[in-house]
Amino acid sequence: MELISRILDGSIPESLRASLPPSGLFGPRVTQDDKIARLEEVPLLEECSRKQLKAVAKITDVVEVPAGTVLARQGEPGNEFYLIMDGSARVELSARRRARLKPGDYFGEMSLLDGEPRSATVAADTPMRLLVIKRRDFATLLREAPELTQSILVTLSRRLRQAEQALR
After folding, report:
1. What is the mean pLDDT of the chain?
2. Do residues 132 and 14 touch, judged by C-beta distance below 8 A?
3. What are phi and psi of 55, to 5 degrees?
4. What are the helix (H) ranges across the chain?
5. DSSP secondary-structure letter at 48?
């Protein structure tokens, strides 16, 4: 029953998504080499060595979702970090505050860092292919590639400044 209701509202949690067959929205399955090649293009990971990128690729899952899928819902617990490979998403912070995410952008790190619920709702505007890192692997990611911690802190700081500006 949950599967049907989640399909209808556009949000399929990771636990159910893992049991579904791959959607094939973007063609053939992504190999480890494909993951590494795509990770090399992501600004967040530009300081990583090939060895670190291999370690990151190992702990990521490739998830494809159709347009309209809710990937994160404001106020709900967050258990995944998402990196967009293909497609775009919209971020809804409030009824009037929205942003757009594109390939190379990421989200979900805040809940994994502080354990608090999601601060925004993120939904796929188009079909999307994402690299997903589960909560248990996120600490491994930061250990394997410590440069990411600095990049994530810069992004969080930028987001905080933008939020402060919007309040003024």
Report:
1. 80
2. yes
3. -65, -40
4. 2-9, 14-17, 32-40, 50-58, 109-114, 135-144, 147-167
5. -
Is the pLDDT at 11 greater than 70? The verdict is no
Q: Is 156 exposed, middle or buried (0-12, 13-18, 19+ CB in 10 A)?
A: middle
Spatial CB neighbours of 123, under 8 Å, sequence gap ≥ 6: 10, 68, 69, 70, 71, 89, 90, 92
Instruction: State both tokens at 35.
Output: 């993951």
Q: For the chain, give percent helix, strand, coil, nearest 5.
A: 40, 20, 35
Q: Which residues pair with 133 in a beta bridge?
A: 81
CATH, residue 58 = 2.60.120.10
From residue 156, how far is each of 8, 22, 37, 86 by CA, in Å?
33, 32, 26, 23
The amino acid occupying position 58 is K
Residue 74, pLDDT above cutoff 70? yes
Biggest alpha carbon–alpha carbon distance for the chain = 48
Kindly give the residue spans of alpha helices, DSSP state H, lying in 13-146: 14-17, 32-40, 50-58, 109-114, 135-144
This prediction's pTM: 0.73
Residue 66: helix, strand or coil by DSSP? coil
Domain total of the chain:
1
Range of the domain at 49: 2-167
